[in-house]
Amino acid sequence: MKIAIVGTGYVGLVSGACFAEMGVDVTCVDIDKEKIERLRRGIIPIYEPGLEEMVLRNAREGRLSFTTNLAECIDGVEIVFSAVGTPPDEDGSADLHYVLDVARTFGENIRKYTLLVTKSTVPVGTAALVREAVAAALAARGADVPFDVASNPEFLKEGAAIKDFMSPDRVVVGVDTERARELMAKLYRPFLLNNFRVIFTDIPSAEMIKYAANSMLATRISFMNDIANMCELVGADVNMVRKGIGSDSRIGSKFLYAGCGYGGSCFPKDVKALIHSADALGYSMEVLKAVENVNERQKEVVFNKLSAWYGGDLAGRKIAVWGLAFKAETDDMREATSLVTIGRLLDAGATVTVYDPVAMDECRRRLDAKVRYATDIYDAARGADALLVLTEWKQFRLPSWPDIVAEMTTPLVIDGRNIYDPAEMAAAGIIYKGIGR
Fold first, then answer.
1. Among candidate residues 201, 223, 253, the one where a domain is terminated
2. What is the pLDDT at residue 332?
3. Would residue 18 show up in a list of annotated catalytic residues for this protein?
């Protein structure tokens, strides 16, 4: 089976590599000539565990190729996936112009029945706009070529995307014709053979499932962060609260970890987009608006704890930051708490030294010389008046605390991810502050 995937960002490249791993002949398409040339040379533009090896292997074995021109490959494929970006506009709505550009290009070039599948996260109703764009392009050509549109939202967690794709909780496919259903069933037959859940729905429901899922997870995170802040006021331990409520089978334990706010490419964007979509329909998503407000406030919590400790005077203080990515196992800093925290520190006159196992280059791209870049966790702590832990990297879990204390001017550690045991930290002579503890 041959398919094309337009967009070689996180979703497109992971999907392309994984489909190729399943034996599908995949052509990845992107208008960025430099990116395509680098991919042809085996240079991967994103960090994701296992992705580089998979891309190189499948390219070497001829199942994965790269081009800048969809027209070059469209005659030979049965399905075209649209996996381009849908960045938020200033009002929070999803920017669909890349999605509609793909639809127009698709309509300008198909010469036989082909299925266009939206993989990008798009608002409910986008499929209708895509269909109109394809039809308009066909009409402009004076062509009458059959096509279908489908929705196949992704549910990939950064840092675990390969596993999520190859062993999914579920695959959601929205279709409105039997022909499209049969073609998608053929593509996903390996998953059906392995008894993974492939859920076929109508297209609007598939589009809604993606937003609803991310919004529910974001809601659980913000709820626990609110509970954590309340725990501090009453002397409770949020970790004990989490275990207590997570043992309730109606609630479960996942996404109940308190911390310093969620970030990344999905939750913030999708919550905003769902809020905007509802507002456009005259309905206010009050719970999600509260979720968003709690999260924005929570991104300030580590800075506020530090500022309170030093009586609001951070001018000239040397602050170490461990963790720049919005979560572990990725170099993605989109909407990361680190950006908010570092911005507040710099505004307060502090000097900042940062370390992250993989996101240093991304930080240099964003912040340039505004911060100092350490060579490791111990270098970051050298001479620091405080250490802020913002990402839960495994490499941060068991440092030599005596060596860290020896490097720091003041052994103050503010743990934004509740990685450490307060009793152990106190025994090491550390002034320790977590979230909700």
1. 201
2. 95
3. no
Residues 197 and 73 in one domain: yes
The per-residue pLDDT for 87 is: 79
How many alpha carbons fall within 13 Å on the CB side of residue 86?
26
Q: Give me the domain span that covers residue 334.
A: 299-433
Q: What is the pLDDT of residue 193?
A: 76
Q: Note the pTM of the prediction, 2 decimals.
A: 0.89
- For residues 280 and 368, membership in a common domain is answered with no
Of the residues 18, 28, 260, 266, only one is catalytic, namely 266
> Which pLDDT value is given to residue 194?
75
**Which of 297, 321, 350 is the C-terminal boundary of a domain?**
297
The residue ranges of the chain whose pLDDT is under 70 are 90
| Residues 96 and 44 grouped into a single domain | yes
